[in-house]
Amino acid sequence: MRILSVDDSAATRHFIKKAIDVLGFEFLEAGDGKQGLEVLERENGNVDLILLDRHMPEMDGMAMLEALKANDLFKNIPVTMVTVELERDEIHKAIEKGAKNYLIKPFSQENLVGKIMESLNIEL
Fold first, then answer.
1. What CATH number belongs to 1-76?
2. 3-state SS, residue 2
3. pTM for the model
4. Domain extents for the chain?
5. Do residues 76 and 67 touch, judged by C-beta distance below 8 A?
6. In 3D, which of 18, 96, 109, 10 has the Cα closest to residue 53?
7. What is the tens place of the pLDDT at every residue in 32-53?
8. What is the DSSP string of 50-111?
């Protein structure tokens, strides 16, 4: 399994990488939505899950989510939004735009692993 973390926080990406390493999955990363799309292009869309931060410079998570769902190569990759947003409207907006799951920061490694497995339809 290959998981792409798109987040402008290097510390958050490092935390996510540790969880993905424990699962034995391959970790890919990008610092914003534009870089995330570049990684996907380079990898020919060969990614099993995208963990996507909502608030980032250059291209935020909602803009990247819209770009993903508009691209035939990327539209079926499950996306879990990762953000500090607590407002229900933001969660509903992301789900309506095609996000499969939502994870609120701060989160534990246990919560992260649970959301990853749920998003990949893998039973724990």
1. 3.40.50.2300
2. strand
3. 0.95
4. 1-76
5. no
6. 10
7. 999 999 999 999 999 999 999 9
8. EEEESS-SSS-HHHHHHHHHT-TTTTTS-EEEEES---HHHHHHHHHTT--EEEESS--HHH
